[in-house]
Amino acid sequence: MQDLITAKTVLKSGDYTCVLCRGACTHTATARGVAPLLQWLEDETDLRGFFAADKVVGGAAAFLYVLLGVAHVHACVISARAIDVLTANGIAFSYDTAVPAIKNRTGDGFCPMERATASLPVCAPADALAVIKETLLRLKRGGTV
Question: pTM of the prediction?
């Protein structure tokens, strides 16, 4: 659990969105949303067994954490969907605040990633990856989700 304490401490000490720790190895990110998690997946960064601390964990991020193989996720804010995904996939988690769903950045609706992955089975992280990537492409093109 020292790795979890370290991850939470580092998250609060800087301008980070998520921090992953295991032993002497620490990975940090400042990018928002699921971007850092996708990057680590694409780079094939081995994060199996790491302890993660993240500012916001919705369903999409939870699916990505499952694919990354982390041991534990601590979220400052976590959605009900993320709780379901992590539980169904055997990932330990803790949180400061639970909410029904993650809101978008303007606060006037739900996060597009949360909406995009809402109907997927909780035990289908590989399916979620394709949906997340497709949703990001549409958002980058200025489309709606």
Answer: 0.94
98 to 54, 82, 117: CA distances (angstroms)? 13, 10, 18
Q: How many residues does the chain have?
A: 145
Q: Which residues contact 138 (CB under 8 A, 6 or more apart)?
A: 144, 145
CATH class of domain segment(s) 2-140: alpha beta
Domain boundaries, the chain: 2-140
Radius of gyration of the chain, Cα coordinates, nearest whole angstrom = 14
For 82, half-sphere exposure in the C-beta direction (CA atoms, 13 angstrom radius) is 32
Is residue 45 predicted with pLDDT exceeding 70? Answer: yes
In degrees rounded to 5, what are phi and psi of residue 126? -65, -40
CB 77 within 8 A of CB 99: yes
